[in-house]
Amino acid sequence: MRPVRTVLALGLSVLAAVGGVVAPATAAPPATDSGGRAMTWTLLADGPSGTVQVGGGPLSNPYQGDTATTTALPVLCLRIDGRPVPDGITPGFYAGWARGAVAATYPMRGTRLTSRAVADGVCANTFGQGWRMAEFHDGRYGPDLESSGGWSYWAYGDVPAGTRFWTAIDDQPANPWN
Predict the structure, then answer these.
(1) pTM of the entire structure?
(2) Which of 18, 23, 53, 173 could bridge across to 27 with cysteines, CB 3.0–4.6 Å?
(3) What is the C-alpha to C-alpha distance for residues 80 and 142, in angstroms, rounded to an integer?
(4) How many other C-beta atoms lie within 10 A of the C-beta of residue 19?
(5) CA nearest 166: which of 97, 106, 110?
């Protein structure tokens, strides 16, 4: 049996070789971005008449974020234009009606979205006037769509399946700029 010191020294050598041992934090280079996390949504379903349901799904964390902001993802954009609810959709708290259309931008790192105004500008520059970053509470329900829900909503549009989108949330610190 090897002495304990030899085993410990060999173990440290192996850890250092695979990157398990790092220099003290004071010796580390300064970070180039926040390394934070932000909330993302995805396509949940295709609906009637060219509609889609977008929402967080099981991977979303609207309280602390679920995806590193260093990740490049599309921004989910929304243009509210007052469209009525199409037949086949019954808006509710967890799956409201957004009263417009959604679309996704080209992928970009979340660190580039330094404020809500910047994110809204990305949508407007990509799709035109009236477009802005989609928000968690944009789904509406109830008589005359007077109530705001959350977690998902329906809108007209076509967004890619199988990807996540940067999506804003107004009442939690889970945005790329937080």
Answers:
(1) 0.80
(2) 23
(3) 17
(4) 7
(5) 110
Under-50 pLDDT residues of the chain: 1-35
pLDDT at residue 8 in the model:
32
Entry field: residues in the chain:
178
DSSP state of 17: H
What distance in Å separates the CA atoms of residue 90 and residue 97, rounded to the nearest whole number?
8
Neighbours of 95 (CB within 10 A): 21
CA separation for the pair 178, 64 (Å, rounded): 10
Q: How far apart are CA 66 and CA 54, in angstroms?
A: 16
Query: Which residues are bridge partners to 162 per DSSP?
Result: none
* Number of helical (H) and strand (E) elements in the chain, helices listed first: 2, 13
H or E element: which one contains 67? Answer: strand 67-68
- The answer to whether residues 36 and 67 touch, using CB atoms and an 8 Å cutoff, is no
Q: Are 166 and 176 in contact (CB under 8 A)?
A: yes
Write out the two tokens for 120: 């809204």
Q: Report the C-alpha gap between 95 and 118 in whole angstroms.
A: 27
H-helix or E-strand containing 42? Answer: strand 40-46
pLDDT of residue 127: 98
**pLDDT of res. 22:** 34
